[in-house]
Design brief:
- The structure holds 2 protein chains of 2 kinds.
- Chain A is α+β, with helices and mostly antiparallel strands.
- In chain A, about 50% of the residues lie in helices and about 25% in strands.
- Chain A is built from 4 helices and 5 strands.
- Chain A has a 5-stranded antiparallel sheet, sandwiched between helices.
- In chain A, helix 1 runs antiparallel to helix 3.
- Chain A is globular and about 60 Å long.
- Chain B has a 6-stranded mixed sheet. Chain B has a 6-stranded mixed sheet with strand order 5-4-23-22-25-13. A 6-stranded antiparallel sheet of chain B has the order 14-21-18-19-20-15.
- Chain B is globular and about 65 Å long.
- Chain B starts with a strand and ends with a strand.
- The relative contact order of chain B is 0.16.
- Classes of the chains: A alpha+beta, B alpha+beta.
- At the A-B interface, helix 3 of A face strand 5 and helix 14 of B.
Chain lengths: ~150, ~450
């Protein structure tokens, strides 16, 4: 007989594993030199995890604020087939940051803010990879270790 | 005969090698006879690579190992830019070789390599076994100081654009030697080996009919130096190569570009072209006449954008086929609209040959690569190579092609997995790929090599 309490513990364990694996994947993307911020949103616009460095410059906070405003619009586009959306956010007269919105599974949006002179061609490879992996984790609530087996 | 593949994507290179090795070991189950080891580029340099190689050394200290660092790695399960990949062989005779400081004395070192290759080939022929060599020459890499300067819009410090100075344009006697000077400076300051200095080695191997593949391991993101691995130690500016031979196997290889010709009208280059330096096209200065061919006279900003950095790919970056349609020698064209010059990534020898053959006029076609054509061509090219008897596959994909695919990279990798099925394979994404089937050297291409069993088990 499995007692209900132990059963709940298993579920909690699975959830905690899933959350930690989400954080590992997002952190892996954030460690790239070209990336300034990675944020994972729920479809209702609530942030699940966020990696950013406010010490470098305060302009990143204004961009994040803009992302929060715009996410309700991108949500509908991503629902209807689009894999990703790219915007350029002007922060200075000379500088514009590329911002990517990726569909992650059925109930998430991955937002990545890059440096103004980042190599977007190569970063797209890593961004699509993390979006795919995060999507699987969110949909099935599995950890990375379960995926590889 | 058995092979297995392990791959892990992680920023921590030690952790990645550990897990990749575990994956490969569990698949193989027996003691391996040879190891291939590839990594994504790491800013830590030699120290980090040596530390990660020590992890493999703890288990297999006597088994020959070779490999190099590239930009990215992929497998049937995963893909990414940072991490490690391992391929283990059993039942194949493997030997590895190292030639130190290849960049300084390329002439004498090529003779050394040729001697070794021919000796191995003759030995194996007596036992009725076929061999294939995989070369890892040192690739292009700028010092960090230079990269930082280039990133801050001081393009004058880029050695390629420094040659676009007025001196080189106005003095015709100097423009003949620009390519040679670039190659000499690259070899001298350890920026890397260019195609033209590795040319005589691959030419002789091609003429003797020796099967080979390889990569230069260039990383166009950070422009870090490429490292070569030889028996559990990392080297820079040196050539390593591995020979695989077995009586039961037959090695096959192929190159594909996936390019479509956009502009069918050929144009003539009517000036001396050495080291990819084109002062005049169609009787006009290079940049102006090229803008005319692209029909972009009114929008020079696009070309300015795509030629800001020499190696970075841009969807509007023009590629050209030199000499002939059938041979498919694909090279990148880059022009700076502010200065009146065009540069080609073709090696010196190609340019010289064209000049000798045609004297004043050569024809070339301008073409373009797109994500759709690359994906479609993968189907055609691999279906002819891969069969029921294939044992393993190694694919060297150009980094610029990966950039073209961009957001569709996930689909592109799934396409690989669909065609190859359960066959163990590795895709190494890096700049500069060579193959015995395609000579003269081709840029912007996919080199695929596959081993097939002669007698099905």
């Amino acid at each position: 007989m499995i007692s209900p309490i132990s059963n709940m513990d298993d579920q909690a364990l699975k959830l905690s594993r899933a959350i930690s694996s989400i954080q590992i994947e997002a952190d892996h993307l954030f460690k790239f030199r070209d990336v300034r911020a990675t944020i994972l949103f729920r479809l209702d616009g609530r942030a699940l995890t966020a990696f950013y460095d406010p010490k470098t410059s305060s302009s990143i906070l204004t961009v994040i604020k803009w992302v929060k405003d715009i996410i309700s619009k991108t949500k509908e586009e991503l629902k209807h087939g689009a894999r990703s959306i790219k915007y350029n956010k002007q922060i200075d007269q000379n500088e514009a940051l590329p911002v990517y919105f990726y569909r992650t599974g059925n109930s998430g949006i991955l937002v990545v803010i890059l440096h103004s002179r980042a190599n977007t061609g190569f970063m797209e490879i890593e961004m699509s990879r993390t979006a795919k992996r995060l999507g699987i984790i969110i949909d099935r609530k599995q950890s990375i270790g379960d995926l590889e087996q | 005969m058995k092979t297995s593949v392990g791959l892990c994507i992680n920023h921590d290179l030690k952790f990645a090698t550990k897990t990749a090795l575990q994956q490969a070991e569990t698949e193989l189950n027996t003691e391996p006879t040879g190891i291939l080891y590839f990594t994504g580029s790491h800013p830590g340099g030699k120290k980090v690579y040596n530390q990660s190689l020590k992890i493999i050394k703890k288990k297999y200290s006597t088994i020959p190992l070779a490999g190099c660092s590239g930009t990215g790695i992929a497998n049937s399960k995963d893909y990414g830019l940072k991490g490690a990949a391992i391929m283990l062989f059993s039942g194949i005779s493997v030997s590895t070789h190292l030639i130190k400081r290849f960049r300084l004395r390329t002439g004498t070192k090529t003779k050394e390599i040729l001697k070794k290759c021919i000796n191995i080939e003759n030995k194996e022929l007596k036992q009725n076994s076929s061999t294939s060599f995989i070369f890892f020459p040192p690739g292009l890499g700028f010092p960090k100081l230079m990269v930082n300067l280039m990133n801050h819009r001081l393009e004058g410090f880029n050695p390629f654009f420094a040659l676009n100075n007025r001196i080189w344009r106005d003095v015709p006697a100097l423009s003949r030697f620009t390519g040679k000077i670039v190659n000499f400076l690259m070899n001298l300051f350890g920026i890397g080996i260019s195609y033209s200095s590795a040319w005589p080695l691959f030419q002789e191997l091609y003429q003797r009919g020796i099967h080979y593949t390889g990569t230069f391991g260039v990383d166009p993101i950070s422009m870090n130096k490429s490292y070569q691995f030889y028996n559990y130690k990392a080297f820079k500016d040196s050539m390593t190569f591995i020979s695989l031979s077995s009586p039961d196997l037959r090695f096959m290889s192929k190159t594909d570009t996936g390019a479509t010709i956009d502009f069918r009208k050929p144009f003539s280059l009517d000036s001396y072209l050495d080291g990819g330096f084109i002062p005049r096209i169609d009787g006009q200065w290079g940049a102006k006449s090229l803008l005319k061919i692209y029909e972009m006279e009114n929008t020079p900003e696009i070309l300015e954008e795509c030629t800001q950095k020499y190696f970075y790919y841009h969807p509007f970056k023009p590629l050209c086929i030199l000499d002939d349609k059938k041979s498919q020698n694909l090279y990148g064209l880059s022009i700076n609209p502010n200065l009146n010059h065009a540069l080609i990534t073709a090696p010196n020898q190609v340019a010289k040959k064209l000049y000798v053959n045609h004297k004043d006029k050569y024809q070339s076609y301008i073409c373009n690569q797109s994500a759709v054509t690359i994906e479609n061509l993968l189907d055609e090219s691999l279906s002819s190579l891969v069969g029921n008897n294939t044992k393993f596959g190694l694919f060297f994909d150009c980094g610029n092609r990966a950039m073209i695919v961009g957001d569709r990279f996930q689909q592109y990798m799934e396409h690989y997995a669909q065609i190859l099925g359960k066959i163990p394979y590795l895709v190494i994404i890096s700049g500069g790929e060579v193959n015995s089937q395609s000579f003269p050297i081709v840029n912007f291409s996919l080199v695929s090599s596959v081993a097939q069993q002669l007698t099905p088990a």
